[in-house]
Specification:
Length: 196
């Protein structure tokens, strides 16, 4: 009997369901992405009938490029060491709030790991194959107040086991008028430089 229990525990551990600190591993992966700059983060979301795509390219936390596409508009911002430009319909124009935008983006990037993991219950999913890429998966269940504006309650984080860096994050939950879904991907851009 004891041998069967030990064997069953070994099978569960091999399947990735039994692990000491799934939440800590997920948070560490999200935090590690900022030490792997430059990076391109693409977030596509569908919430309450609206589709939005946001692309953020970070050479450093003070050198960034963002493109936000909604159903009716596109806004682009470029910040290079405190100087900035924006464009909504064609021409680039000086952007006075460049330093504040860079600081707000840097704060958001630094806070992301805590926002997605604080108070979460995590499950290690073990090895996951996504399109031929062998990744490590984590499921995070968040309990929150739906009126807080954060509709995502279930997150699936996929991490490259060789680098410890996140590759994608799938989020789902309940919006004001229906299901809310989002997918964020992370691309690491060695040698990438932003220019204007």
């Amino acid at each position: 009997m004891r041998r069967a229990i030990v064997f069953a525990a070994a099978l569960l551990a091999a399947a990735g369901h039994v692990h000491a600190d799934c939440l800590g591993e997920a948070k560490a992966a999200l935090e590690a992405r900022l030490s792997a700059l430059p990076i391109r983060e693409t977030l596509e979301s569908d919430r309450d009938g609206e589709h939005q795509k946001v692309v953020v390219e970070l050479e450093t936390l003070q050198r960034l490029h963002t493109v936000t596409q909604g159903s009716a508009s596109q806004v682009e911002i470029l910040v290079l060491d405190g100087k900035g430009w924006s464009r909504e319909k064609g021409r680039w124009t000086p952007f006075a709030a460049a330093a504040a935008t860079a600081e707000a983006t840097a704060d958001d990037e630094r806070a992301m790991a805590a926002q997605l993991t604080d108070g979460a219950v995590a499950t290690c999913l073990g090895a996951v194959d996504m399109g031929g890429q062998h990744l490590t998966g984590y499921e995070l269940k968040l309990e929150g107040d739906p009126s807080s504006g954060a509709p995502y309650s279930t997150l699936h984080l996929y991490v490259d086991p060789k680098t410890g860096l996140p590759v994608s994050l799938d989020m789902s939950g309940q919006g004001e008028t229906g299901l809310a879904r989002a997918k964020q991907t992370f691309e690491y851009l060695k040698g990438f430089k932003l220019v204007f």
